[in-house]
Amino acid sequence: MGVSGGYQAARRGPSMCPGGEEKALDIVMPLIQKVAARDSHGNPCVAKAGTGASGHYIKMIHNGIEHGMMSALAEAWQIMSIGLKMTYDEIGDVFASWNEEGELRGTFLVAIGAEICRQKNDRGKHVLSIVQDKVVQDVDGTEGTGIWSQTEAVRLHVPAPTLTTAHFIRLASAFRADRKHVKEAFGGHFQVEAWTEAEGDKKAVLESLRKAVYAAFLASFVEGLNIVDQANKEHRWSIDYSAVVQIWRNGCIIKADYITDILADIFKNPQADIDLLHNERVAEELSRAFQPLKETVTKGVQHNSVIPSLSATLEFLKYSTNTILPTQFYEAQLDYFGKHMFDLKSEPAGKPETGKHHFEWKLA
User: Fold this and answer.
1) Whose CA is closest to 36, among 243, 328, 327?
2) Closest among 195, 213, 173 to 309, alpha carbons compared
3) Model confidence over 63-85: pLDDT tens digits?
4) Residue 114 in 3-state DSSP?
5) How far apart are CA 25 and CA 32, in angstroms?
6) DSSP H helical segments within the chain, as ranges?
7) Which residues are catalytic?
8) Which of 33, 97, 116, 333 is most exposed, with minimal Cβ within 10 Å?
Protein backbone atom coordinates (compact mmCIF):
# COMPACT_ATOMS: atom_id res chain seq x y z
CA MET A 1 0.00 0.00 0.00
CA GLY A 2 1.30 3.44 -0.93
CA VAL A 3 0.95 6.16 1.71
CA SER A 4 1.30 9.89 1.07
CA GLY A 5 1.22 13.05 3.14
CA GLY A 6 4.62 13.25 4.78
CA TYR A 7 5.33 12.76 8.47
CA GLN A 8 2.66 15.28 9.50
CA ALA A 9 -0.03 13.09 7.92
CA ALA A 10 0.58 10.55 10.68
CA ARG A 11 -1.50 12.83 12.91
CA ARG A 12 -3.79 14.51 10.40
CA GLY A 13 -4.60 11.51 8.20
CA PRO A 14 -2.71 10.32 5.12
CA SER A 15 -3.78 9.57 1.59
CA MET A 16 -3.65 5.78 1.23
CA CYS A 17 -3.40 3.75 -1.95
CA PRO A 18 -3.92 0.02 -1.35
CA GLY A 19 -3.64 -2.61 -4.06
CA GLY A 20 -4.13 -6.36 -3.89
CA GLU A 21 -6.71 -9.08 -4.00
CA GLU A 22 -10.34 -8.14 -3.44
CA LYS A 23 -10.80 -10.42 -0.40
CA ALA A 24 -7.71 -9.09 1.33
CA LEU A 25 -8.66 -5.50 0.67
CA ASP A 26 -12.16 -6.08 2.06
CA ILE A 27 -10.57 -7.13 5.35
CA VAL A 28 -8.34 -4.08 5.80
CA MET A 29 -10.50 -1.36 4.25
CA PRO A 30 -12.69 -0.70 7.35
CA LEU A 31 -9.57 -0.01 9.39
CA ILE A 32 -7.66 2.17 6.93
CA GLN A 33 -10.80 4.14 6.10
CA LYS A 34 -10.85 5.27 9.73
CA VAL A 35 -7.30 6.65 9.68
CA ALA A 36 -7.22 8.06 6.14
CA ALA A 37 -7.54 11.75 5.28
CA ARG A 38 -11.01 13.05 4.38
CA ASP A 39 -12.07 15.11 1.39
CA SER A 40 -14.28 18.20 1.63
CA HIS A 41 -17.37 15.98 1.72
CA GLY A 42 -16.04 13.79 4.54
CA ASN A 43 -15.22 10.83 2.32
CA PRO A 44 -12.02 8.89 3.13
CA CYS A 45 -9.09 9.38 0.74
CA VAL A 46 -8.48 5.68 0.40
CA ALA A 47 -9.94 3.19 -2.09
CA LYS A 48 -9.18 -0.06 -3.84
CA ALA A 49 -6.70 1.05 -6.49
CA GLY A 50 -6.36 -2.28 -8.28
CA THR A 51 -4.83 -5.72 -7.97
CA GLY A 52 -1.24 -6.79 -7.36
CA ALA A 53 1.33 -4.09 -6.67
CA SER A 54 -0.81 -1.32 -8.19
CA GLY A 55 -1.02 0.60 -4.91
CA HIS A 56 2.74 0.88 -4.53
CA TYR A 57 3.17 1.72 -8.21
CA ILE A 58 0.57 4.50 -8.21
CA LYS A 59 2.19 6.02 -5.11
CA MET A 60 5.56 5.89 -6.87
CA ILE A 61 4.18 7.80 -9.87
CA HIS A 62 2.41 10.16 -7.46
CA ASN A 63 5.90 11.17 -6.36
CA GLY A 64 7.01 11.67 -9.95
CA ILE A 65 4.02 13.99 -10.47
CA GLU A 66 4.92 15.69 -7.21
CA HIS A 67 8.43 16.44 -8.47
CA GLY A 68 7.11 18.06 -11.65
CA MET A 69 4.73 20.24 -9.65
CA MET A 70 7.34 21.20 -7.06
CA SER A 71 9.84 22.22 -9.71
CA ALA A 72 7.33 24.36 -11.60
CA LEU A 73 6.29 26.15 -8.40
CA ALA A 74 9.91 26.67 -7.35
CA GLU A 75 10.64 28.14 -10.78
CA ALA A 76 7.70 30.52 -10.34
CA TRP A 77 9.00 31.49 -6.90
CA GLN A 78 12.41 32.44 -8.32
CA ILE A 79 10.83 34.40 -11.16
CA MET A 80 8.94 36.43 -8.58
CA SER A 81 11.91 36.74 -6.24
CA ILE A 82 14.64 37.65 -8.72
CA GLY A 83 12.75 38.43 -11.91
CA LEU A 84 10.09 40.66 -10.37
CA LYS A 85 12.09 41.66 -7.26
CA MET A 86 9.27 40.72 -4.91
CA THR A 87 9.78 40.16 -1.19
CA TYR A 88 9.16 36.76 0.36
CA ASP A 89 6.03 38.10 2.07
CA GLU A 90 4.73 39.47 -1.23
CA ILE A 91 5.31 36.10 -2.90
CA GLY A 92 3.54 34.40 0.00
CA ASP A 93 0.53 36.65 -0.58
CA VAL A 94 0.51 35.72 -4.30
CA PHE A 95 0.64 32.01 -3.51
CA ALA A 96 -2.16 32.43 -0.99
CA SER A 97 -4.33 34.18 -3.58
CA TRP A 98 -3.57 31.47 -6.15
CA ASN A 99 -4.69 28.85 -3.66
CA GLU A 100 -8.03 30.55 -3.00
CA GLU A 101 -9.56 30.50 -6.47
CA GLY A 102 -9.02 29.57 -10.09
CA GLU A 103 -7.09 26.64 -11.54
CA LEU A 104 -4.68 26.41 -8.59
CA ARG A 105 -7.32 26.52 -5.86
CA GLY A 106 -7.02 24.00 -3.08
CA THR A 107 -3.50 22.95 -4.09
CA PHE A 108 -1.39 21.66 -1.20
CA LEU A 109 1.97 22.72 -2.62
CA VAL A 110 0.73 26.25 -3.33
CA ALA A 111 -0.75 26.51 0.18
CA ILE A 112 2.46 25.46 1.92
CA GLY A 113 4.38 27.68 -0.50
CA ALA A 114 2.61 30.67 1.03
CA GLU A 115 3.52 29.49 4.53
CA ILE A 116 7.16 28.84 3.58
CA CYS A 117 7.56 32.32 2.12
CA ARG A 118 6.13 34.00 5.22
CA GLN A 119 7.76 31.88 7.94
CA LYS A 120 10.36 33.62 10.13
CA ASN A 121 12.66 32.20 12.79
CA ASP A 122 13.02 33.46 16.37
CA ARG A 123 15.36 36.21 15.14
CA GLY A 124 12.78 37.58 12.72
CA LYS A 125 14.61 36.29 9.64
CA HIS A 126 12.81 34.44 6.86
CA VAL A 127 13.74 30.78 7.19
CA LEU A 128 13.67 30.38 3.40
CA SER A 129 16.48 32.92 3.05
CA ILE A 130 18.98 30.63 4.80
CA VAL A 131 18.11 27.42 2.91
CA GLN A 132 20.72 26.21 0.39
CA ASP A 133 19.61 25.53 -3.18
CA LYS A 134 20.21 21.80 -3.12
CA VAL A 135 17.88 18.81 -3.09
CA VAL A 136 19.85 15.73 -2.05
CA GLN A 137 17.21 13.05 -1.40
CA ASP A 138 17.75 11.28 -4.73
CA VAL A 139 21.50 11.12 -4.14
CA ASP A 140 21.66 10.30 -0.42
CA GLY A 141 19.34 7.31 -0.85
CA THR A 142 16.39 8.61 1.18
CA GLU A 143 14.18 9.03 -1.90
CA GLY A 144 14.02 6.47 -4.69
CA THR A 145 10.54 6.95 -6.11
CA GLY A 146 11.53 9.88 -8.31
CA ILE A 147 14.30 7.83 -9.89
CA TRP A 148 12.00 4.86 -10.42
CA SER A 149 9.30 7.09 -11.95
CA GLN A 150 11.74 8.35 -14.57
CA THR A 151 13.06 4.84 -15.20
CA GLU A 152 9.53 3.62 -15.77
CA ALA A 153 8.71 6.47 -18.14
CA VAL A 154 11.70 5.55 -20.31
CA ARG A 155 11.12 1.80 -20.04
CA LEU A 156 7.49 2.13 -21.05
CA HIS A 157 8.25 4.66 -23.84
CA VAL A 158 6.12 7.39 -22.27
CA PRO A 159 7.14 11.03 -22.89
CA ALA A 160 7.16 12.67 -19.45
CA PRO A 161 9.39 15.74 -19.86
CA THR A 162 7.85 17.83 -17.08
CA LEU A 163 8.62 15.06 -14.59
CA THR A 164 11.97 14.05 -16.04
CA THR A 165 13.36 17.57 -16.31
CA ALA A 166 12.29 18.24 -12.73
CA HIS A 167 14.36 15.24 -11.71
CA PHE A 168 17.43 16.46 -13.58
CA ILE A 169 17.45 19.83 -11.82
CA ARG A 170 17.16 18.00 -8.50
CA LEU A 171 20.26 16.01 -9.41
CA ALA A 172 22.18 19.08 -10.55
CA SER A 173 21.17 20.98 -7.42
CA ALA A 174 22.48 18.26 -5.11
CA PHE A 175 26.05 18.80 -6.27
CA ARG A 176 26.33 22.44 -5.15
CA ALA A 177 30.09 22.19 -4.64
CA ASP A 178 30.52 21.00 -8.20
CA ARG A 179 28.30 23.82 -9.47
CA LYS A 180 30.56 26.31 -7.69
CA HIS A 181 33.56 24.75 -9.47
CA VAL A 182 31.79 24.94 -12.84
CA LYS A 183 30.86 28.55 -12.14
CA GLU A 184 34.54 29.35 -11.64
CA ALA A 185 35.49 27.50 -14.83
CA PHE A 186 33.01 29.62 -16.79
CA GLY A 187 34.34 32.80 -15.23
CA GLY A 188 31.10 33.47 -13.40
CA HIS A 189 27.70 32.16 -14.39
CA PHE A 190 24.80 32.95 -16.64
CA GLN A 191 23.28 35.52 -14.34
CA VAL A 192 19.59 35.20 -13.53
CA GLU A 193 18.32 38.66 -14.39
CA ALA A 194 15.48 40.92 -13.32
CA TRP A 195 12.52 41.23 -15.67
CA THR A 196 12.87 44.98 -15.84
CA GLU A 197 10.37 45.44 -18.66
CA ALA A 198 7.69 43.75 -16.52
CA GLU A 199 7.73 46.39 -13.76
CA GLY A 200 4.94 48.42 -15.32
CA ASP A 201 2.66 45.43 -15.91
CA LYS A 202 3.39 43.13 -12.97
CA LYS A 203 -0.26 42.11 -12.53
CA ALA A 204 -0.46 40.72 -16.08
CA VAL A 205 2.90 38.99 -15.73
CA LEU A 206 1.80 37.31 -12.50
CA GLU A 207 -1.43 36.14 -14.13
CA SER A 208 0.52 34.59 -17.01
CA LEU A 209 2.84 32.98 -14.48
CA ARG A 210 -0.11 31.52 -12.58
CA LYS A 211 -1.50 29.96 -15.75
CA ALA A 212 1.97 28.70 -16.71
CA VAL A 213 2.28 26.93 -13.36
CA TYR A 214 -1.18 25.44 -13.86
CA ALA A 215 -0.16 24.13 -17.28
CA ALA A 216 2.88 22.40 -15.75
CA PHE A 217 0.76 20.98 -12.93
CA LEU A 218 -1.84 19.57 -15.31
CA ALA A 219 0.86 18.26 -17.65
CA SER A 220 2.45 16.48 -14.67
CA PHE A 221 -0.82 14.63 -14.03
CA VAL A 222 -1.20 13.79 -17.74
CA GLU A 223 2.33 12.41 -17.98
CA GLY A 224 2.12 10.50 -14.71
CA LEU A 225 -1.20 8.86 -15.54
CA ASN A 226 0.14 7.84 -18.95
CA ILE A 227 2.95 5.99 -17.18
CA VAL A 228 0.45 4.30 -14.88
CA ASP A 229 -1.73 3.35 -17.86
CA GLN A 230 1.09 1.59 -19.67
CA ALA A 231 2.12 -0.29 -16.52
CA ASN A 232 -1.51 -1.24 -15.95
CA LYS A 233 -1.72 -2.72 -19.44
CA GLU A 234 1.51 -4.63 -18.87
CA HIS A 235 0.64 -6.05 -15.44
CA ARG A 236 -3.15 -6.28 -15.85
CA TRP A 237 -3.85 -4.65 -12.49
CA SER A 238 -7.36 -3.52 -13.44
CA ILE A 239 -6.73 -0.09 -11.96
CA ASP A 240 -9.81 1.90 -10.99
CA TYR A 241 -8.87 5.45 -12.00
CA SER A 242 -11.88 7.00 -10.29
CA ALA A 243 -10.59 5.40 -7.07
CA VAL A 244 -7.14 6.87 -7.72
CA VAL A 245 -8.65 10.35 -8.05
CA GLN A 246 -10.46 9.90 -4.72
CA ILE A 247 -7.19 8.83 -3.09
CA TRP A 248 -5.57 12.03 -4.36
CA ARG A 249 -8.41 14.28 -3.10
CA ASN A 250 -6.70 15.11 0.20
CA GLY A 251 -3.88 14.09 2.50
CA CYS A 252 -1.35 13.80 -0.32
CA ILE A 253 1.30 16.15 -1.65
CA ILE A 254 -0.28 16.46 -5.11
CA LYS A 255 -3.69 17.52 -3.78
CA ALA A 256 -5.07 19.94 -6.38
CA ASP A 257 -8.83 20.47 -6.16
CA TYR A 258 -9.42 22.00 -9.59
CA ILE A 259 -7.45 19.29 -11.38
CA THR A 260 -8.95 16.39 -9.44
CA ASP A 261 -12.44 17.77 -10.15
CA ILE A 262 -11.63 17.53 -13.86
CA LEU A 263 -10.21 14.02 -13.48
CA ALA A 264 -13.16 12.84 -11.42
CA ASP A 265 -15.57 14.00 -14.10
CA ILE A 266 -13.55 12.18 -16.79
CA PHE A 267 -13.03 8.92 -14.93
CA LYS A 268 -16.59 8.52 -13.75
CA ASN A 269 -16.86 6.83 -17.14
CA PRO A 270 -15.06 3.46 -16.68
CA GLN A 271 -14.35 3.38 -20.43
CA ALA A 272 -12.61 6.77 -20.48
CA ASP A 273 -9.40 7.10 -22.47
CA ILE A 274 -6.59 7.30 -19.92
CA ASP A 275 -4.41 9.39 -22.23
CA LEU A 276 -5.80 12.74 -21.16
CA LEU A 277 -4.37 14.53 -24.19
CA HIS A 278 -7.18 12.82 -26.12
CA ASN A 279 -9.77 14.40 -23.82
CA GLU A 280 -11.50 17.58 -25.06
CA ARG A 281 -11.73 19.16 -21.59
CA VAL A 282 -8.02 18.65 -20.89
CA ALA A 283 -7.15 19.86 -24.38
CA GLU A 284 -9.24 22.97 -23.76
CA GLU A 285 -7.53 23.61 -20.41
CA LEU A 286 -4.01 23.23 -21.79
CA SER A 287 -4.83 25.23 -24.91
CA ARG A 288 -6.05 28.11 -22.78
CA ALA A 289 -2.85 28.02 -20.73
CA PHE A 290 -0.54 27.66 -23.74
CA GLN A 291 -0.06 31.35 -24.59
CA PRO A 292 0.58 32.45 -20.98
CA LEU A 293 3.02 29.55 -20.63
CA LYS A 294 4.76 30.57 -23.85
CA GLU A 295 4.97 34.21 -22.74
CA THR A 296 6.42 33.18 -19.37
CA VAL A 297 9.00 30.86 -20.90
CA THR A 298 9.96 33.47 -23.50
CA LYS A 299 10.64 36.09 -20.82
CA GLY A 300 12.43 33.51 -18.73
CA VAL A 301 14.75 32.56 -21.57
CA GLN A 302 15.50 36.22 -22.28
CA HIS A 303 16.55 36.78 -18.66
CA ASN A 304 18.28 33.44 -17.90
CA SER A 305 15.58 32.37 -15.46
CA VAL A 306 15.98 28.74 -14.43
CA ILE A 307 12.74 27.21 -15.75
CA PRO A 308 13.32 23.55 -16.68
CA SER A 309 9.83 22.19 -15.94
CA LEU A 310 7.94 25.18 -17.31
CA SER A 311 9.93 25.12 -20.56
CA ALA A 312 9.71 21.32 -20.79
CA THR A 313 5.92 21.58 -20.46
CA LEU A 314 5.82 24.06 -23.33
CA GLU A 315 7.86 21.72 -25.55
CA PHE A 316 5.70 18.76 -24.47
CA LEU A 317 2.58 20.54 -25.66
CA LYS A 318 4.24 21.61 -28.91
CA TYR A 319 5.52 18.20 -29.98
CA SER A 320 2.58 16.20 -28.61
CA THR A 321 0.11 18.19 -30.71
CA ASN A 322 2.20 18.46 -33.87
CA THR A 323 2.54 16.25 -36.95
CA ILE A 324 5.44 18.21 -38.43
CA LEU A 325 8.34 17.30 -36.15
CA PRO A 326 12.09 17.69 -36.83
CA THR A 327 12.31 13.93 -36.35
CA GLN A 328 11.56 13.69 -40.07
CA PHE A 329 15.20 14.70 -40.61
CA TYR A 330 16.26 12.58 -37.61
CA GLU A 331 14.74 9.48 -39.20
CA ALA A 332 16.57 10.16 -42.47
CA GLN A 333 19.87 10.38 -40.59
CA LEU A 334 19.22 7.03 -38.97
CA ASP A 335 18.49 5.47 -42.33
CA TYR A 336 21.60 7.07 -43.88
CA PHE A 337 24.16 5.60 -41.49
CA GLY A 338 22.33 2.63 -40.03
CA LYS A 339 19.76 1.46 -42.59
CA HIS A 340 17.09 1.81 -39.91
CA MET A 341 14.30 2.19 -42.49
CA PHE A 342 11.47 4.72 -42.63
CA ASP A 343 7.80 5.11 -43.53
CA LEU A 344 6.51 7.36 -46.31
CA LYS A 345 4.36 10.43 -45.76
CA SER A 346 1.90 8.97 -48.24
CA GLU A 347 1.31 5.97 -45.94
CA PRO A 348 -0.95 5.82 -42.85
CA ALA A 349 0.60 6.91 -39.53
CA GLY A 350 0.53 3.33 -38.28
CA LYS A 351 2.08 1.95 -35.11
CA PRO A 352 5.61 2.59 -33.76
CA GLU A 353 7.12 -0.21 -35.84
CA THR A 354 10.15 -0.48 -38.11
CA GLY A 355 9.55 1.26 -41.41
CA LYS A 356 9.32 -0.59 -44.72
CA HIS A 357 11.58 1.62 -46.82
CA HIS A 358 15.29 2.30 -47.19
CA PHE A 359 17.15 4.65 -49.50
CA GLU A 360 20.77 4.07 -50.45
CA TRP A 361 21.91 7.61 -49.62
CA LYS A 362 25.52 6.92 -50.51
CA LEU A 363 27.02 3.89 -52.20
CA ALA A 364 29.16 1.87 -49.80
Assistant:
1) 243
2) 213
3) 999 999 999 999 999 999 999 99
4) helix
5) 10
6) 9-12, 22-35, 54-78, 88-100, 108-118, 145-155, 161-174, 176-185, 202-235, 241-247, 257-267, 280-302, 308-320, 327-338
7) 59, 66
8) 333
